[in-house]
Design goal:
125 residues; 7-stranded mixed β-sheet; 4-stranded antiparallel β-sheet
Length: 125
């Protein structure tokens, strides 16, 4: 079985921080993209951040300078450090993996073929 399990969500006041963790299992790949997505207000899935095994990163403009994605390949674990959180950051956050090391586009969730169940982030003003 291929599994992605997220944790670290919760409730925080604006300006606070959270760290999300995604642990992968059942993979046997040398090169891949992993990413975090979140639901929008109309249940639109928005790409937040992505990282590949070379260390390349991508961020949606709204989180640049506030969020940091990182990957520990030895533990098959990806992290999302979220600082200076805003109410508009609230949503269900999903971990995803591009299994065939394709384009890994944040604007195209279909590039990612394995998904976790999500972890809820709520930011109050």
């Amino acid at each position: 079985q291929i599994d992605l399990v997220e944790s670290g969500g919760g409730s925080v006041q604006a300006g606070g921080s959270l760290t999300l963790t995604c642990v992968a299992s059942g993979y046997n790949e040398d090169s891949y993209w992993m990413a975090w997505f979140r639901d929008g207000p109309q249940n639109v899935r928005e790409g937040v951040a992505a990282i590949d095994t070379s260390g390349a990163t991508r961020y949606v403009d709204s989180v640049k300078g506030r969020f940091t994605i990182s990957l520990d390949k030895s533990k098959d674990t990806v992290y999302l450090q979220m600082d200076s959180l805003k109410p508009e950051d609230s949503g269900m956050y999903y971990c995803a993996k591009d299994l065939d090391y394709g384009l890994g586009r944040l604007e195209e969730p279909g590039d990612f073929t394995a998904w976790g169940r999500g972890t809820q982030v709520t930011v109050s003003s």
